[in-house]
Amino acid sequence: MLLHMAQFEQALTSEVLARSMGTNPAVFRRTMAGLRRAGYVKSDKGHGGGWRLARPLREITLLAVYEALDRPTLFAIGSRRAYANCMIEKNVNAALSETISHAERLILERLGQVTLDQLAPAITKGSFGAHCL
């Protein structure tokens, strides 16, 4: 959404942005709350209000967005705990835990290297956003 928002001069309403994400405005606003607290977006109420970027895309990394969204789980693989005394289960859990921790460190490192401006198309404001939203 932040990349789409950068394509528009005017603020975009929660309704417009939520529709483009396939969700409802209340869910969208809850998601955006963390980004607002982190200072990446701002919202204005009333007529002509809506969401807009508070910083240039070059100042926002994917890691910053991830952290502003309260660091959602990266992997849905979990350890099994059905048999506490099973050595096979313990060994598999240990290997999975170590592997997932290593993968998470690599992903977070890479997310910190990518700024949103690197992901934006090299075109002028307003020239692609309408058909994407």
TrEMBL record:
SUPFAM superfamilies: Winged helix' DNA-binding domain
UniProt xrefs under InterPro entries: Tscrpt_reg_Rrf2, WH-like_DNA-bd_sf, WH_DNA-bd_sf
One Pfam entry name: Rrf2
Coiled-coil stretches noted in the UniProt entry, renumbered to this chain: none
PROSITE patterns in alphabetical order: HTH_RRF2_2
PANTHER family: HTH-TYPE TRANSCRIPTIONAL REGULATOR YWGB-RELATED, WINGED HELIX-TURN-HELIX TRANSCRIPTIONAL REGULATOR, RRF2 FAMILY
Protein name, UniProt field: Rrf2 family transcriptional regulator
Organism: Pseudorhizobium endolithicum
Lineage of the species this protein comes from: Bacteria, Pseudomonadati, Pseudomonadota, Alphaproteobacteria, Hyphomicrobiales
